[in-house]
Amino acid sequence: MLDSGVHADHPHVGGVQGGTSFASENVTDFVDRIGHGTAVAAAIREKSPDVDLLAVRVFERRLATDADVLVRAITWAADHGAHLINLSLGTANPAHGERLAAAIQHAASRGSLVVSARESNHVDWLPGSLPGVAGVVADWTCERDVIGVTAPSADDSLPVFHASAYPRSIPGVPRERNLSGVSFAVANVTGFLARALESADASPVDVIRRYFSATSR
Question: Nearest to residue 99, comparing CAs of 63, 64, 136, 71?
Fold first, then answer.
């Protein structure tokens, strides 16, 4: 998870296997200060209870980073054995496309698949709209226990995923007062993919092609 870090002791997270920080000088400090990464981790854990989580902190006290940090973080995750790299984020700046594409290719060479926001408010985001990425679109009508899949466009190699924009619910907190957005659609898809990987002796891309055919739900 490339995000704001994680509160590993949160009951909805249940621990992490390790991590690092690209947002501070202390590379061992991947503790979440703003809650976003913890909510992402909880959504993934809900769908895949046995998943091993690596927390890669790219945000400090606000949800903002830069392309160089993102490229280094993707590379780090791939080099440390991540099967799925959750990016509940994106940029609309096309100037970053070439560097991010190279990072995606490096991740693929290591057997890692990036799952990231594809578009929001009719704006294409990077790296989620790049070929070789499992791009995700938020579906505000989708229930949290299902995902939708549509066929890729001509220049894509993978289908597009549609998922609920809501995170794991918090007891006593109305859904409309909780966090929401495409970030959690990405996390929900990552959780489903992680669960599928548990029972499949295959790469993430092969699992998608085997179990998540276009137009399925």
Answer: 71
Q: Is residue 200 over pLDDT 70?
A: yes
* Per-residue pLDDT tens over the stretch 120-138: 888 899 999 999 999 999 9
Nearest in space to 43 (alpha carbons), one of 170, 141, 213: 170
pTM for the structure as a whole: 0.92
Mean pLDDT of the chain: 90
What does the DSSP assignment read for the chain?
A: -EES---TTSTTT---SEEEESSSS-TT----SSSHHHHHHHHHHHH-TT---EEEE--SSSS---HHHHHHHHHHHHHTT-SEEEE---B--GGGHHHHHHHHHHHHHTT-EEEEE-EETTEE-BTTTSTTSEEEEE-TTS-TT-EEEE---TT-SSPEEEE-S-----TTS-GGGS--SHHHHHHHHHHHHHHHHHT-SS-HHHHHHHH--TT--
Q: Is the pLDDT assigned to residue 217 strictly greater than 60?
A: no
* Domain 63-211 listed as CATH 3.40.50.200: yes
Q: How far apart are CA 202 and CA 204, in angstroms?
A: 7
Q: Which structure tokens are listed for 49? A: 């209870």
Give residue limits of the domains in the chain. Answer: 63-211
Cross-strand bridge partners of residue 134: 115
